[in-house]
Specification:
The structure holds 2 protein chains of 2 kinds. Chain A is mostly helical. Chain A is built from 14 helices and 2 strands. Chain B is built from 11 helices and 13 strands. In chain B, helix 5 packs antiparallel against helix 6 and helix 7 crosses helix 8. Chain B is globular and about 75 Å long. The chains are: A mainly alpha, B alpha+beta.
């Protein structure tokens, strides 16, 4: 124990000496050896510098600087111990499955229209997001009050803790100035515009919806111009219809005029179906 | 190949020591009778024939001062660097063109290092407060001369150094440290002959002596199961550099696999952080971290995490690598640590001490969120200014938080 203590004291003393001699070197280097002579080296550094044939102050200075840098680098020491940051309050909820996180990345990159539903389904089923997704969610939802509130619930106590340490993750704009949204606002999916003639498909039987959509797209009745409203339709239709719709749209022949549109909608239907499945698992 | 009659040798290895270890080993085998009598391979026959022709052609020219080149040099420092693969005592006029080219290159490099040291000396005389240091041209001109002198790696260091001037309140200290290392390299580069072989190789490579990939891949492989511990992208001039830090599960040794991409080129995506692959790594000459991936023995396995140590031990590991090569800019380590704060600086910390973190934005936020006040295993790069967190290792997965190349600059692989 005494040996350990004396070693620690010696190490600290050496580090302090080295720091002081480095500061002296920096001071001389700023002025230049034309104005001030380099400090006299001590210890091992002196041995190294004395071993070299140096005539001018600048040459001796360079040798001393090089030797000191090497010793400082090779003798890298940790800084003094500090009080560790206390963690956030515990969150008893389970983290959602990894597949759901992969799906979230796909949703935010390709199907923004599903993002609100992803988050609400997560919250409804009692999941929380893994810690590594928290900074991304807080950064993504800074200014929309409702989405920010959902994100903070999904992140749990970690969100407030993280914002406390990293203020750049705090809410901004409306999310910072408006009153907190109500529970009803948070729990409600935003409305998406869907034409009245397509509205019956929202709650119709899955097979019927699939047949109607596939037929209309294949025949050219529904074309690319309807893409936006069809996306809204698939994003809000009854979840039980998604599988049948996706299958019917995937079956459209590649040579059909409606094939590109059908492919897009089929991908959306499959994505939403899998998303709900992943977030529904227990 | 060894000609034991005329005392000459040739080897394909990149070593500047002559005769190299392979030649010595071959001679030892031969002297103990372990080299069987057989028909000479075509390359040996061609080499001997070439030597025969040179010998008959150059007898009258023995006064041609090839040796004058080295004699004009005050010391023989450049000799190891210009050492040839073929060490036969031929007169200069008969050395093959590539050897002559190499001689010239070594001379240029030697001259460049001498000029660099003179320039450093001027900086010491006039001081770092000299306004000339604030002009980029001061550094750029020196860098250009070093490029001409075949010391491209030093030229890159000089350009990076230019960016340190005025960058922080204590830039004088940072610049002085780098000037000291440049002096060290300039001195060592002119004394390659008196340095131990591995160190000489390391200095030569650091100064800018290029080694062909084929020569590296021809070396003895370092076979192990390598954990891809971390990835880090940095922009250097107009090139994006990707570093993959690998750690051997058996040897515990670190290795660095680099890939480069100019604008719209792709970086290496074949190594995935948190996986392990059984492979042959071929290291560059010297005690180099840098290596090339050779033969891969099977598909990567996952997930794995490298062994982690406490902060004090991590400093010890860093020190060992820096003692071998003090000019390294980055050194990897994996530590089990938590986060602490000192003013506005975040620290990697445990009960034994702290290391300052260089991280902001998403990487720091992710590290803090994942740690959440508890210790985590994290692979970092030590740099002279602090440590950069690259990977957080959890049970079953690793989270890559290292700096990532700008997608607008590099294209997807």
């Amino acid at each position: 124990m005494t040996d350990h203590l004396s070693n620690a004291v010696e190490t600290t003393a050496s580090a302090v000496d080295l720091r002081a001699s480095w500061d002296d070197l920096v001071a001389v280097a700023m002025l230049g050896t034309d104005r001030r002579n380099p400090p006299s080296p001590t210890g091992m550094i002196a041995d190294v510098v004395d071993d070299t044939v140096r005539s001018s102050p600048s040459e001796r200075m360079l040798a001393q600087v090089a030797a000191t840098v090497v010793v400082r680098r090779a003798g890298v020491l940790p800084g003094p111990a500090r009080l560790l940051i206390a963690g956030p309050d515990a969150d008893d909820r389970q983290v959602c499955v990894p597949a759901a996180i992969e799906r979230w990345h796909h949703v935010v990159s390709s199907w923004h229209v599903l993002e609100d539903e992803w988050m609400l389904t997560l919250l409804t089923n009692g999941w929380r997001v893994p810690p590594d997704l928290v900074p991304e969610l807080l950064t993504r939802h800074r200014s929309d009050p409702i989405r920010r509130a959902r994100a903070e619930i999904a992140c749990g106590p970690l969100a407030g803790w993280l914002v406390g340490h990293l203020p750049e993750l705090a809410a901004r704009g409306a999310a910072n100035t408006q009153p907190d949204p109500s529970a009803d606002d948070i729990a409600e999916l935003p409305m998406l515009p869907i034409p009245p003639d397509l509205e019956p498909l929202l709650f119709a039987d899955g097979d019927q919806v699939a047949r109607q959509l596939a037929k209309a797209i294949d025949s050219g009745t529904l074309v690319h111009a309807h893409r936006a409203v069809l996306i809204n339709l698939v994003a809000r239709m009854h979840a039980g219809s998604l599988g049948a719709v996706a299958t019917a749209l995937e079956a459209i022949d590649g040579s059909s005029i409606g094939f590109p549109l059908a492919s897009v909608l089929a991908d959306l239907a499959r994505t939403r179906e899998r998303m709900l499945d992943e977030l529904g698992r227990t | 190949m060894v000609d034991h009659v005329a005392v000459a040798s040739r080897c394909t290895c990149p070593s500047r020591r002559h005769p190299c270890k392979h030649v010595l080993a071959l001679l030892l085998l031969w002297s103990s009778g372990d080299v069987p009598e057989t028909t000479a391979p075509a390359t040996v026959v061609a080499w001997l024939a070439e030597r025969q022709v040179s010998a008959t052609r150059t007898v009258p020219d023995t006064a041609t001062p090839r040796s004058a080149t080295t004699e004009t040099t005050p010391t023989d420092d450049a000799a190891p660097a210009d050492a040839e693969s073929d060490t036969s005592p031929e007169p200069a006029g008969d050395v093959p063109d590539r050897d002559r080219v190499r001689d010239e290159r070594v001379e240029r490099m030697y001259a460049g290092l001498t000029e660099l040291d003179r320039w450093l000396d001027d900086r010491m005389r006039t001081g770092l407060a000299d306004p000339v240091l604030a002009k980029y041209a001061t550094w750029d001109e020196l860098a250009a001369r070093l490029v001409d002198a075949q010391a491209g790696s030093l030229a890159n260091r000089i350009r990076r150094l230019a960016g340190l001037v005025g960058e922080s309140p204590d830039w004088h200290s940072d610049v002085l440290a780098e000037l000291g290392l440049l002096h060290l390299l300039a001195q060592a580069g002119r004394r390659l002959g008196s340095l131990p072989g591995p160190l000489a190789d390391a200095v030569a490579t650091t100064v800018g002596w290029s080694v062909r990939q084929a020569d590296v891949l021809a070396g003895v492989p370092d076979t192990d199961t390598w954990i891809v511990a971390a990835r880090s992208d940095t922009r250097e001039d107009r090139i994006e550099v990707r570093r993959h830090w690998l750690r051997g599960t058996t040897s515990g040794r670190w290795a660095l696999v680099l890939s480069f991409a100019a604008y719209r080129q792709s970086l290496d995506t074949s190594l995935t952080v948190g996986t392990a692959l059984a492979a042959d790594l071929h290291r560059y000459p010297g005690p180099a971290l840098r290596a090339l991936v050779g033969t891969r023995h099977g598909e990567p396995t996952e997930p794995v995490r490298p062994p982690a140590v406490d902060i004090v031990s991590a400093c010890g590991e860093i020190g060992v690598l820096l003692a071998a090569e003090p000019w390294l800019d980055r050194v990897p380590f994996t530590a089990t640590a938590s986060i602490a704060v000192d003013g506005s600086t975040f620290l990697l910390a445990d009960a034994g001490g702290t290391l300052p973190l260089i991280a902001a934005g998403r990487p720091l936020a992710t590290l803090m969120a994942v740690a959440g006040g508890d210790p985590v295993d994290v692979t970092c790069e030590w740099t002279p200014h602090g440590v950069v967190p690259l990977t957080v290792h959890l049970d079953g997965r690793s989270i890559d938080i290292g700096p990532r190349a700008d997608d607008d600059f590099v294209s997807a692989a």
